[in-house]
Amino acid sequence: MKIVVADSISESALEALKSQPTWQIVYLPGGSLADVIRDADALIVRSATKVTAELLARAPRLRAIGRAGVGVDNVDLDAATKRGIVVMNTPGGNAVSVAEHTLALILALARRLPQADSLLKKGAWEKKKLLGVELRSKTLGLIGLGKVGIEVARLAQAFAMDVLAYDPYVSSMLASEQDVKLAPLEEVLKTSDFISLHASLTPETHHLVNARTLALAKPGVRIVNCARGELIHEGDLLRALESGHVAGAGLDVFETEPPRDLKLASHPNVIATW
User: Fold this and answer.
1) What pLDDT shows up at residue 194?
2) Which of 35, 111, 163, 174 has a 20 to 30 Å separation from 148 between CA atoms?
3) How many CB atoms lie within 10 A of CB 28?
């Protein structure tokens, strides 16, 4: 069986695949799939590779697509279904890692760590210029309370933060077990000091953070996105940052990756990672 790995995966995962004697592994992160996909039986991707109907048309033997991550929005599910191709993902596989990165961005925003680091390296000693905020007793609003959202809630609670969540698909019992209060989106926006996005990308969540929803948010809110770049209308967020309504943003994902327009990523109150 020929398995094409189109995006970068960990060395341990690659070794596990190669350990199967009957599997031929083609590791081609970032490369052209045009030739190798023709006789592939399975395809493994992360976020970078877009599995389009055109790509699938070049793969008559393909029977399975595995997404090494949460969500399958980079796979044309209709085209795969018509071809009888099974599409799988790994929900929760990186939940702890994403949650820790989310909290790292929250802390960096609260303490303005990138700005402090940059100023000191330039020889400036302006401690009063970069006053941070404490997380204790602040409200964290989660949009999405899946595996990652739950992990973020647990970490935030260790800092004595109050946690609200908007997720129409989660039961109040599950939220209560995590000491999280479920609330309508409008309440989460209006009362949260920090908002962290952990929703899947769907037609309903596309550009969920936009001019209208940002206007509902608490002045001085800080926004973190380690989920999907398309959840945020980047132009609207940039305008909210420039007006000061949004005090800062920590972004690990973007609508286009890598971002071609760096106005948002290079804003002084944005921490941008990948």
Assistant:
1) 98
2) 111
3) 16
Give the Cα separation of 50 and 73 in Å (integer): 9
Burial zone of 178 (CB within 10 Å; 0-12 exposed, 13-18 middle, 19+ buried): middle
Averaged pLDDT of the chain = 94
As a whole number of angstroms, the distance between CA 92 and CA 242 comes to 35
d(CA 61, CA 83): 10
Residue 109's closest CA among 252, 255, 263?
252
Q: Considering the chain, what percentage of its residues have pLDDT values greater than 90?
A: 86
Amino acid type, 84: G
Indicate if the pLDDT at residue 67 is higher than 80: yes
As given in the structure block, the two tokens for residue 109 are 């925003």
Question: Measured between alpha carbons, how far is 24 from 18 in angstroms, rounded to an integer?
Answer: 7
| pLDDT confidence of residue 131 | 87
Answer yes or no: are the C-beta atoms of 250 and 271 closer than 8 Å: yes
Other CB atoms within a 10 A radius of the CB of residue 258 amount to 9
Task: Give dist(CA 188, CA 141) in Å, integer.
Answer: 6
